[in-house]
């Protein structure tokens, strides 16, 4: 490594390194040009060496090198940002196109479903299939678009990674040339960056794969939703969202009634009045009376709070804990009488200690008694009202309980009937499956039609059975309508007992009225001096309580009157509620029957398809067997004919006997018709033709034997091909149990026919060989017939005079040919 701007010799560097550990010696350095030994000298320095006294030139150099290094890193970052921005824009364009295509396909699917839903009549199966096919095509187009997006996005990510790697490799040498970091550190840093690039590529690829899987899942869900909508339209169900599920009582439904909340929150608890310093003047008595009125109001508030709590408990109890009406205890009401005595006793004790006046209880005697009686009367009225509400509410809850039990019994009966029908229908599936399997494995077309007719009759009976079962289930559910009359009579009887127990109460003024407060027998009289301060507040508070009690009595009477007036509407209301309940459950049973009918129609289509398939298979098997056997029998018929027509005597494959015989005949005629020659010469010439005739016949016979051998090999080859074809045909016959398409009888019939074909081939071989042998003898006889005239002519010419006639030439030629054959064999 050489430093621009300054340099020194290796000895000075080593000496400076030595002074770093021992002593510092200042050296005067002069800027010089670098020498080749500088790099070696710097490389020899230890890694932890730093100059002890660096000059400004070295510091500026190191600072400049760091700036150059950072500038190169900035260029790398800017280049990476440019690459990422470009790739991100292109990916964003692809994503926007994909989103637009998905939205367009979804709108197309919605249009198809809406178009099918626009018809007033139920959707036909053909229209459903056509719409479903269109939806599947649209979804397949969406899936293809998703796959294209994934492929293009992965290509862009790969392009991003490649460009980033090229960018790093392009700036690596510049960083090495800057020299701020060692090449080892740079390589390590760049390896880490490339590793991060590869990891980012893998992460992005995984994200695109997951997105593709999610979009494919959404497409599948969209197809399922569209298919469900089309199936509902086929059943005549509109696209309106239903409030209940079509399942048949998959859960126990709680039967309860909610009442309007009329209870009030508990008020503040009663507080006893705090006593201050009691004075002797009238103003102090006014304060005492005010506190007494406050205590009275607290007592009344406590009564109402207790009533509110009871109503709250009643509201919680109704419809949840059906335990019957509760009787409210009177102890809580009687305890309210002592609520006024305690503050009065404390007031009396305070006044007795401070002065010698009369006790407060003596002064307010009649008023206090009236207050106690009014509180007791109000509490009793509230207790009785609460009892009426409690009893009335539990009457209706008891009816709800009876209705719930009747509903559960009806549902249990219907479910038992459903279970019985399901078991019967499941049992009926066994003969159907057996018959369908027999149809699929029928041996001929006639049996296929017989099985199809029997299955059709079976399916018709099954459809009738479905109808009877549905009617029986609806009838069992309809039996619930017998309960409303009985439950109405029971409820009316309970209502009569309730009205007899709680008759209308006449409105009476309580014991704490104003008249009794102003003067009643048996109560102490007030003195005129105290009447002005005590008379007004207490009666006013008591009178307000009495007004509340009168209003409570009026409400009670109005409630009982309304209750009695609405009793006559109970039977119709119960019947109406029962009818709604039955209709709600009947809808599920009708849906069950509709689904059975749809599955039944699908099953009939399956049977028809199985029949057509089996008939097509049988026809294909017969056509294939017929074609194979026709080829075999055609070969059997053709081979003997070919053998009988084998090779004419002048065929090119045979020895040209005819040509040679014709030449010899011409030559003999020339010898005979030529000018008279010497007898010996003529005799010698004629003698030379006899062995040549024999030789020609031998050559002709040899060529004939060779041709016959070739024909036999050809015959054997063709027969062998037919045998192999027959064996292959037999090997392709597989039963249904072996994964084939042949029934046992059909396989036996086919194998028998193929066996007959094989026997015909074997018989054809013998017949063809016999015919071929006959053809050979025929050709040899024809050759002898051609040679015979010349043979006679030669023998007549060379016959000595005065001797007997020669033997037949044919015999001599045959003997000569036999001798030649024997010599050849030897």
List the SSEs and their pairings.
Blueprint: H1 10-19, H2 37-44, H3 56-117, H4 125-178, H5 183-234, H6 282-317, H7 331-334, H8 337-354, H9 360-363, H10 365-440, H11 445-478, H12 483-501, H13 514-518, H14 528-534, H15 537-565, H16 570-644, H17 657-673, H18 679-731, H19 744-798, H20 809-825
Helix pairs in contact: 3-4, 3-5, 4-5, 6-8, 6-10, 6-15, 8-10, 10-11, 10-12, 10-15, 11-16, 12-16, 16-18, 16-19, 17-18, 17-19, 18-19, 18-20
Characterize the overall form. Answer: flat
> What integer value in Å does the Rg equal?
63 Å
Percent helix, as a range, is: over 70%
Main beta sheet: strand number and arrangement?
none
| Oligomeric grouping of the chains | single chain
Number of helices: 20
Element pattern in H and E: HHHHHHHHHHHHHHHHHHHH
Counted up, domains total 4
Average pLDDT level: 73
Spans of 5+ residues with little confidence (pLDDT < 50)? 1-34, 238-285, 318-337, 350-358, 509-535, 802-817
Structural class, from secondary structure content?
mainly alpha
Distance between the termini: 104 Å
Extended strand count: 0
What is the strand content?
A: under 5%
Protein name: DUF4455 domain-containing protein
Region (Disordered): 798-826
Domain DUF4455: 63-216
InterPro entries: DUF4455
